[in-house]
Design a protein that fits this description.
seven-stranded mixed sheet; single chain; 384 residues; binds MU-OXO-diiron; alpha/beta
Length: 384
């Protein structure tokens, strides 16, 4: 795939591994992107996952057309991109690695060498001339590891953005960008909103015609839209004024309460979506909580606390920097309800999360009083 006259895509699609990073479900696969810039000097931009070495080398050889690469630019050391560094360096003994100081430290740990005699260390605003193309490096610590750099090719106006602007899904999967990019962002990079915001400020100063991420498609149209969405995500701002109802239910009674609230909110014209945490994708639920302005957590009491799927969900939110949201609680309990207090406690570490005092308490099954309370809660939520 040709990205520009001199830039070629040489990445691979992973349709084998059902889980990315050992935990994220990827029903449409995953891509590990790599690129070659052919100029007076030839630069290879990152490698790919270790399960796809042969295919990547084949793609690389085809792009090189008999030439030898001069540089391997390493933007990120996570093994889904760095696994083939040693293979590359052995195969092309005259090539030099261009990367951050921290990345070379990680190479020592991964490969037993930091390539001291075959490296160029780059930092903020350093440049590398390939001939007509000049790469300018942008440090991007914690997007998503501390060693990360991005690079900008000023000739073609291309930003090589490392993990940023990536998504789940192989390149040949037919799906819209936003849902899988959001699920990817909040699951993997979401905890690091502040550093992402910092890098986006630097990116805003660049004239970008295309973004080449390490996962997902090259973005070459409507760049301001992607930058705006990422800016919102990095700032933990909701995308929409709607409501996400996350619920757990053992025998269906808490589900009934959650779906009743969903129906009442919907009737009031409030955008709302409900998910059963035991049956939906965990990363999807996390992404929905960040997407919507308001969150309702409805849970059964369990072992003197909260149901495990809800406990894991809120813990996940807290660990991913969930903040500045309005939260509502529904608890169910048959003899000693404790779900609400347990949920409140789990949210304690979340900055500027306001939990409404209007908590619906169900004793085993939804009763007429609960129905009236749900109507009142729907009114409160819709009016904010
Ligand atoms: Fe795609 Fe952080 O590696």
């Amino acid at each position: 795939m040709q990205i520009s006259k001199d830039i070629k895509y040489i990445g691979v699609n992973d349709r084998i591994n059902p889980l990315f990073e050992g935990q994220y479900s990827v029903p449409n696969g995953m891509s590990y992107n790599s690129y070659v810039i052919t100029d007076e000097k030839i630069a290879v931009m990152d490698t790919v996952d270790g399960g796809f070495t042969a295919q990547w080398l084949e793609n690389l050889e085809a792009a090189l057309s008999g030439n030898k690469p001069d540089y391997l630019v390493v933007h990120h050391m996570e093994p889904d991109h760095s696994a083939n560094i040693a293979v590359f360096m052995e195969r092309y003994p005259e090539a030099v690695i261009v990367s951050s100081q921290k990345a070379f430290g990680m190479m020592k740990n991964f490969f037993g060498t930091d390539y001291a005699d075959r490296r160029i260390v780059v930092g903020e605003n350093d440049t590398l001339s390939l001939g007509k193309h000049t790469l300018t490096f942008v440090t991007a610590p914690m997007v998503h590891w501390p060693e990360v750099i991005m690079s900008y090719d000023s000739l073609d106006k291309v930003l090589f953005s490392a993990d940023a602007f990536g998504k789940f899904g192989a390149l040949d999967s037919d799906e819209e960008w936003e849902n899988e990019a959001r699920r990817y962002y909040f699951g993997i990079v979401g905890k690091f909103g502040m550093p992402v915001s910092g890098v986006l400020k630097k990116a805003a100063k660049l004239d970008i015609a295309a973004i080449c991420p390490l996962h997902g498609p090259v973005l070459s149209e409507n760049i301001p839209h992607y930058l705006e969405l990422y800016t919102k995500w990095a700032a933990y701002e909701p995308e929409t004024d709607g409501v996400f109802i996350a619920y757990t239910s053992v025998y269906g009674n808490t589900r009934k309460a959650a779906l009743l609230l969903e129906e009442k909110l919907s009737t009031k014209g409030c955008p709302v979506i409900a998910m059963d945490l035991a049956r939906c994708d965990r990363a999807e639920a996390l992404a929905m909580a960040f997407k919507y302005k308001k969150l309702v957590c409805a849970s059964t009491t369990y072992n003197g606390g909260v149901f495990p799927f809800m406990r894991d969900f809120i813990t996940d939110l807290a660990e991913h920097g969930y903040k500045s949201r309005q939260v509502y609680l529904i608890e169910n309990g048959s003899w000693a309800p404790t779900a609400a207090s347990a949920m409140k406690k789990l949210f304690e570490g979340c900055k500027d999360v306001v939990i409404s005092d209007n908590i619906i308490k169900i004793n085993s099954a939804v009763n007429p009083e609960n129905i009236a309370q749900t109507e009142a809660l729907a009114e409160e939520i819709a009016s904010l």
